[in-house]
Every structure is written in structure tokens, then in C-alpha cells.
Amino acid sequence: MSTRLPPTGRPHDEILSALDAKREGDADYKNGRTWSLVYWAGDEHHELLREAHDRLMATNALNPLAFKSLKRMEREVVEMTARMLNAPESAVGTMTSGGTESLLLAVKTYRDRARKKRPWILRPNIVAPETIHVAFDKAAHLFGVRLKLAPVGDDGAVDVDAMRRLVDAQTILLAASAPQYPHGTVDPIPAIAALARKKRLPLHVDACFGGFMLPWLERLGVAMPTWDFRVPGVTSISADIHKYGYGAKGASVIVYRDMDLLRHQFFVTTRWAGGIYVSPGLPGTRPGGPIAAAWAAMNALGESGYLALAKDAWQTAERLRAGIGAIAGLRVMGSPHATIVTWTSDDDAVDVFAVADLLQEKGWAVDRQQRPPSVHLTANASNAPIVDSYLADLAEAVAHVRARPELKHKGEAAVYGLMAKVPIDRLVAREVLGAVASMYAAGADPDAPPDTAAIDRHGPRLRALLDGLDEVRTRLGRLSWRGRKRTR
Ligand SMILES: *Cc1c(COP(=O)(O)O)cnc(C)c1O
């Protein structure tokens, strides 16, 4: 512990220069070298967000009576979002701090609803595709609900028959994505909604990614399953404003078909010495800044602004798909309903994670995925200018990896390669937990890479094991880890 409060405050200009110094080495989002994490709609838009955020920065939406401004803006944001998602007039909802909070709340809402309406359920479960966002795992863990996952097909869309088979007397909710994050595929919502209606279950559609993108793509003529409130049986939808809504970070919306559902989201207690306490979501204090910035972003862009940004992002995604598909040894995954581009390789001579390492060395932010090893790109209008240089770097990296097969045993490729393939999930989870703990350890150097020593230590042993497994797999011909059914 070396840092302590300065004994007296430092001058503001000195603080801001020190802050800028700390930003050195941050991902370069303005020049389109990141995919996801930052959704950039240009300097002018950013200035508006900054101003709106700034004016309400000190306010708190915990008490909606104190800052009516926030309640008014939250209402308009929810209403605009509901209209965009083709919700009925009865629709209601709240703003939240992000996609994760929206999904945690969906699970809490339907769990509490089931407790009220079906109190005999002792071990509630949720049935969802294996590609559903991890916030559902987190919610299941926090709220004591079991998550039962159905496999997806080669196009990334869930097998609805498998979902049907997982539904039992303890099921309280179905969930699916529009689109799912790993491959950008929209799940077959109409079929899932039909199942939900037949089983008299609610259905949450996670459109955290696509909520502010798919409505515009649909208008542009991109084919996709209908997924919003037009589908009878969809009872709620989450949509992130801090993604393609181009708001400031800390803003998402959850919309329900009616108040009979939303009421189960609210928390009220009267026992506290501090008074009667009500909160619509998970946090207590709710910052006003993201609400104001969200409201400003939606008003600044309007339908035409979102449509134009969506068109640019879509064209960027299409250029990436075409370019990546043309690189020998690479394959684009999923069905292209959205602005997500995921590439993998079926070529033994092209190790995806070794290619990823080389791209990272060239200054690209790389999102690695598993089952199978793949790289995920979120296309944005801001990425348009760098598509050609990405494709050139990618083609070069692929050629390089082909020429030097030993690269897959080096750098992060070794670690990720191991993690993607090792079937011993619990061991991997323990090692990753250790690496995270090392980042948060007392006195840890924030610039140090995560401590993967433990993984490296197990590496040789696991690699030997894997080589053995690979051989068995080759002999058996077509056994693949990807096809493994994940149900818990
Ligand atoms: C980003 C995302 C989330 C989670 O949102 P956060 O804002 O990161 O908490 C949930 N679902 C999908 C499909 C997403 O893309």
C-alpha cells in the first residue's frame, strides 16, 4: 500500500494532467481500433453527452420526488424505447445502470412473480440458449435460480425442441437473445414465444446488444426473425442505451408488457429506522448523469440519426464479412442478423489464438471467444475507416501463423488455447480467479499483466493430457467439445 490521500489537495490543472498521463496506453477508440467497449458516434455527439451528463451529474434518481427532471427524462426514455420495440400502450419499464442490471432485474422480477403465483416451486429454473449472456449466470447465482441451457445449431440459433425438453414443472421463465453476443444471431423468437405461451411461461428477450440496432436494420431490409413486442408471448425486453443507443456509459432500459410484471421488480421495505425505502432497481443511489445523457442522445439522433449510424455499421460489418471470408483458412460464423462479425478457422494450420496475439501486437483490441476458438468484432460506424487495414493485418497474421506453427504455444495463445480446450472447467475457473485476485492484490502493479503463472505451471501437464485427448478425438473422428450439451 503505497498510495495515500495527499495531505493537502492538489491544484486542479495538475490533477488533470496527471489524469491524462494515466490514460497512456488506453485502447484507441476514437480511431476505430476497438470493437465493442466503446460505441462512438463522433466528437460533436460526445460533446452533447458531456454537457447533458455534466448538468445532472450531482443529482440522484434514488428519490424521484427530489429531482423531477430525472423522472421526466426516465419516463420519456422508457416510452421512446417501448415505441421503438413496438410495445403496446400498456408497456412500462425503468432505466438501469446497464445490460447486466437489466438482466439481473428480469430474473429477480420473474422469480418474485413465481414466488407469488406458484409458491409450490422450490427450485425455480430458467430455460435459455447456451449463448445467453453471462449476466444470466450471475443472476442465477445471486437469486438462487437454476439456469438450464439448450444447445445452438451451426448458425448460432437455439434448438427450440431442446428448450422444450428442458422445461419442467419448476420452470419460471424462458429467455433468448436478439441477437446473442457471441455470433450475432437472433434466436427464433416466434417459436420460443409459442413455446412460452403453450407452457404459460413469460419470455424475456435480451436485446441489450440489438435493441437500438435491429429496428433500423429491419428498416434497411436485413432479414431476421421478428423478435420484439409484435411477437405475442414476449413479456419483456432489455435494450442498452450505452451500446447502440450511443448514450453515456451506465444506461439501459427494461420494458415489460404491463405493470402486472414490472411491479415484481420494485423493492419496498418499511422496517428501517431510516424510513420507508423504495427502489425500482438494484442500486440505491442512481446517478443522474447517464439518464440525462441517454435522453439527450435519443433526442439528438432521432430515427434518422439511428438509421444512418446503423447503415454505416451494417456496411462496415458486411465489408468485414466479405473480406474475412476471402482469407484462406478463415470462416465467418453465425447468421448475419446484426453488426457482429465472428471469425474462426477450420484449418489446423491456422491457430486462431496465435493470429489473435499477432493482431494485438499490431495494436488491435482483440475479443477472444471459445467453443470453438474465435474472434469477435462489434462493427460500428466508427470502424468504417479502418476495415481495410484490419483485413490487411489479419491476412498477414494468418500467413505468419501458417509459416510458424510454434506460435500457438507462445504468448496468450498458449493460455487461451488451453482454456478454450480444457474440459476441466473448474480448474480453469480457479486459475482465472487467481489471476483476477492477483490484479486486485494489495500493492499490485496495475500495469502488470495478469498473473497466469499458475496456468503456465499446469500448462505442460494439461497440454500432455490434451494431446492425448486430441488423439482420441482424431480416432473417434467426429467428437467435438462444442457439441457438448451444457445443462446445469
Ligand atoms: C452487453 C450485453 C449485455 C450486458 O450488458 P452490460 O452493459 O455489459 O452489463 C447483455 N446481453 C447482451 C446480448 C450484451 O451484448
Strand order of the largest sheet: 1-7-6-5-4-2-3
Task: Briefly note the structural class of the backbone.
Answer: alpha/beta
CATH level-4 homologous superfamily of the domain at 51-299: Type I PLP-dependent aspartate aminotransferase-like (Major domain)
Q: How much strand content do the residues show?
A: 5-15%
Helix content: 40-55%
Q: Which regions contain 5 or more consecutive residues with pLDDT less than 50?
A: 478-488
User: Which CATH first-tier class of the domain at 51-299 would you pick?
Assistant: Alpha Beta
Number of strands: 13
What general outline do the C-alpha atoms trace? globular
What kind of sheet is the major sheet?
7 strands, mixed
Secondary-structure element order, as H and E?
HHHEHEHEHEHEHEEHEEHEEHEEHHHH
The unique ligands bound to this protein are: pyridoxal-5'-phosphate
- CATH fold type of the domain at 51-299: Aspartate Aminotransferase, domain 2
**Helical element count?**
15
The assigned CATH architecture of the domain at 51-299 is: 3-Layer(aba) Sandwich
Distance N to C terminus: 41 Å
